[in-house]
Amino acid sequence: MNKLLTLLSLGLALSLGAAHAADAPAAAASAAKAPTAQQGKMATCNTDAAGKKGDERKAFMKECLSAKPAAAAPSDKKMAQQEKMKTCNKDATGKKGDERKAFMKECLSK
Fold it and tell me: What span, in angstroms and rounded, lies between the C-alpha atoms of 59 and 45?
């Protein structure tokens, strides 16, 4: 009877260990990181290359993956700030030192 209980508890312990080990890959997959920018670019280029084969596909993928992203257009706020700087600089002509510094500070804060 004692041997039967020992074998039963050993079997239970092994089955629980096997079940826990089977859950490990699922946990690792859920903790996978989001795709990087390069991986996203690769996916986009791969989709765009549908229908191309051989050297044509190879050339397309090389061109697509080496392309730089388009430069973002400056925002309206940034443009307004630059225009304000130009205007204040023009108005500050002839002022120097602390007088110019004070004028620019006041002009730009308006």
Answer: 12
